[in-house]
Design brief:
about 1000 residues, 6 strands
Length: about 1000
Amino acid sequence: MDRSSAGIIDKYARPGNDYNQPDDSAASGRGRYRQCTVRHQDNPPHSTPWHNEFYHSSGPCPSQYLVHRSVNPAQDFNALIKQEIMDDLVRKSDRFGHRYDGKKHAQYASSMKKYTTTAKRPLNRAEQSQLVRLLQNFTATRSWNWRSLTTTLHSFTSAGVFTLHKPVDERVKLTQANLLSTLFDAIIFNCNQKPEARDIDAQGIANLFWAMAKLVDNGQDRIPGFKEAVAVLLPHVNAQKKQFIPQGIANLLWAMAKLVDNGQKRTPEFNQAVVALLPHVNAQKDQFKAQGITNLLWAMAKLVDNGQERTPELNKAVASLLHNVNAQKDQFIAQHVANLLWAMVKLVDNGQERTPELNESVAVLLPHVNAQKAHFKPQEITNLLWALAKLGDKGQEQTPEFNEAVASLLPRVNAQKTNFKPQEIANLLWAMAKLTDKGQKQTPELKQAVAALLPHVDVQKEQFIPQAIANLLWAMAKLVDNGQEQTPELNEAVAALLPYVNAQKGQFNAQGIANLLWAMAKLVDIGQERTPELNEAVAALLPLVNAQKAHFRPQEIANLLWAMAKLVDIGQERTPELKEAVAALLPHVNAQKADFNPQEIANLLWATAKLVDNGQEKIPGLKEAVAALLPLMNVQKDHFIPQHIANLLWAMAKLVNNGYEQTPEFNETLAALLTCVIVQKANFNPQEITNLLWAMAKLVDNGQEQTPGLNEAVAALLPLVNAQKDQFNAQGIANLLWAMAKLGELIELNPAICTFESLVYRISENLQLSQEEISMSLWGVMVCCARLALDSNANKSDVFEKHMDDLFTRLENTSPDNEEEQSIMIMAASWLGRACPLVRHYQTIISKSQADFRDQLQSSIPSLKIDEEKSLNSLPPVDLLLPDHNIVIEVQGPSHYVGGDFNTRQGSTLLKIALLQKAGFEVIEIPVNMLWNQDLMKPYIDQIKTRIGISPQEHGSVSLKRGWAGAAYVTGEEHLQGQSSLAKRKKTSSR
């Protein structure tokens, strides 16, 4: 069902809030911290703005440029939070007033960052609380210079001063907001000064953007002045673009991507800043280190995912970086590997061509997943499995390296199960579902990983946002559909989520709605109980289909119609909302017909057939939707897999059975699909074989002409029934017996009997059959017995009659109450000579051909007693009965023959003749095309005269073909040859 079915939303599968920092040291903006390395450099001349004493090449953020004496590594935290330090800062600020440049404040902020760097972690909650008490009077002013402003904001942000710990301390939050407001105000003021009055440099811009991206991650983007500060900085990116060194470029693009991902509007100034930087990625490609490469690819993937146009410059930047991935493959740490694979897959997911360079980059990284498996954190495990699942969904070959990467990560899911956040739980289950859907084996490790996560769905149910709810329910449905056991934990997880579908119904987007309805239909289809919560969830979603109808993509339209058809098929009430939802979608089938892939075409036709079969044929637009799909099936015929072919033919048979007109387009499509059956005959599974033969029998039952393609398709499938006889379930066996019986003489007797024997043998193994399956099987066995009885050369055996007797007893014990099953019981009782308490009242219809022949016969033999529409032994009524002579005359219209060919009789016709003969009646069959005028009738009347002992007048005689002694039927073959051209021009209706 996503693209793929179910087609799944993956907004959550992102490096995310506390991930993908532009370095190793700040692995989390919310509590995690890693070691950074300080690269000591010789002091360059002050005229070079980028080179200064404290530039960290791989630090947690862009480089610092404090003067050397400002940092004392020996200071510990207690020394830094002495009141006298803060008092001294306040005095200096007060003393110099508007001439104070903020240098001492910046040095203090830098010292705090140095402390956290040495401690290899940001400030904890207690430390932050102690520090914030001192910072109540720490205020930035407009007199501060650029370096002091950028150093202070960057250093405090990096040290974790502005992190919002939960539960939030309002006192701390207020102090943070006040300090940030003064910093933003001063930055805005500085940026708005005339060029000669400001000292803005490239490194400071990069530092500020990094800090503000981190603030967004920490939930501090609502501080007054934040958005304006971003806006005034953006033009300076373009102005300073030539001054940024590789690390600055990487950090800037990372920060801009992070800002956009957290709601920053992509203004013209923002887009210009991105465009200005991209050429420099290509120009400086050889100078980026492993971490810079990682951050840049992550940033470009994230920007594209948020709507950034894939310009030639962006494509060149990506291409140049991919080359470096291969060149520096041994330098990437675990976090890099996870981010790079995520980024490359996200780019592909947004239209990036899978070039040889991209494929090589993926290939060189996959072994590193296995090699570094012990070092991945929970979010990295999540992103890697998401990326691997997406690669599989995009056609990535499941190489040994790919499979090893998946296998190495699955045990890590189990080991870290308590550490995954709600978003990660949703992504992991989605990824595992997608992997299994693309052929990944459900290994013990995969099952254990799924089992480990399911209890956490229930525990964290209140934390899932709408998209996560949709992904989770889709994933669980897909896992079960691919063989995952429906454990109590899985059922509990489903039950835990369903109330939230209703509660959050207004927040689901188009894809979420489609995935949810598909998931609920699939879960119910495979045994999920239809609880009140599930019914309420479905009811809550149906009005949203109509509301969002304009936003559904082709895959979603196909999945929605499939889901609603499936729900109706398993008992969903056909409410006005459901009918409106279907009606809202059908016009979009026609509108988007050119965009449906083969699977979607198959699902759509199946859905329309199911809806029609369940009483929805009057929904506006349904016939137009079918008409739109038929030409597509012909065009895409070479792309249908066996399952599609079986479903399409089943759907076409269902549509015809419910009155759909067999247009030229319909017949062309049918012919194309029958050819596909022959070509792919070796690939059909038991259910598909059953559906195909059922469909062909149903088409024949509704007047489908015999064609070479139809005959060859039937002949191609029959050997497969015998070959796979042990794999058919009860329903399949019943449908096959019915189908082969219905096709009648189209299947040669010997192959038919051989196939019947193999299927009836399965029934004798005490196979559990429903009442309908017993009835269908009994009818099929009776037709088999009839064929044997009507062929004088066949080897007679009582084996089938023993099975008939057994099935009759089983049906009798179910006390059938519908007329069709009662009629089958009556026929079986007649054949077996058993008493039957049932009495059928048949509706009789006299065709014009029958009436004309009766009148002509009566006129020729006035004394002849003729009964019409007489029921004999409670069997279906015969056309004409000559009671004084035990002769039955059946006027056979085209519906009695396969394809109306007046030669190949259907199973129901054969059964009726055999039952009458077994009851002692001679049966004369007269094809209706032999009764178009009195001249054609005359030979048959003469033959009847001969039968009853009256000498006919001289006239051409009709050859009679006999069954066993004392019984006969007339086929009129010799006259058929002479009248074939006339038969093509005239059509006669008959009961």
